[in-house]
Amino acid sequence: METGTWAYYGLQRLANNSTIFVALQGLNNGWGNSGGEDVTFVDNMISQIEGALCVDTSRRFAVGFSYGGATTYVLACARTTVFRAVAVHSGGQLSGCGGGTQPIAYLGVHGIRDGVLGISGGRTMRDKFVRNNGCAGQNPPEPAQGSRTHTVTTYAGCSAGHPVAWAAFDEGHIAAPQDGVGGDSGSKAWVPGEVWKSFTQF
Fold this sequence. Notes:
One of its GO terms (biological process) is xylan catabolic process. Belongs to the faeC family. It is found in: Secreted. The protein is of the alpha/beta class. The longest helix has 16 residues, at 37-52. It has helices spanning 3-6, 12-15, 37-52, 67-78, 119-132, 191-200; strands spanning 61-65, 85-89, 105-111, 150-154, 164-169. It has six helices and five strands; from the N terminus they run H-H-H-E-H-E-E-H-E-E-H. The chain has a five-stranded mixed beta sheet with strand order 1-2-3-5-4, with helices on both faces.
């Protein structure tokens, strides 16, 4: 993928120098959150960053793909008062959901043909926050296999400030899907725009 256009999941080019971006590296390239170590790491990281920089603490956001999506889900569960919103992209319940009873603005993104972390897990994670956020339950449409398209559904009835959206796409376990063709494209992916829209509504 084109690294310049895909920096920070394609969000840096949309931010126009308005945002502090931080990329984390998990122990052994993973985020198992053993004994809560990864959540503690994030807590310490935030403390260090906010000790050094001027941060709008009402607008902290978390986004991640795959294992990073799983970690973002953990933060959605455990740090609802720390993060304003999350975007869980092709994640899974790899590290549990400590807490997990409070609402948080939530965007789920998942490929219908994901063979690594199946879409059923993405739906389950989404539905937890559909319930937590008081949204009206529904079975959102997803694109047909072979269509090379995506659908985005915004749930109705969610509690104030806690929207839930679901973006399903016809592809596998990839970070930068594009409509019309297969594979990743940092410059043509629609995901960054959806994540940016989700976050900047606040």
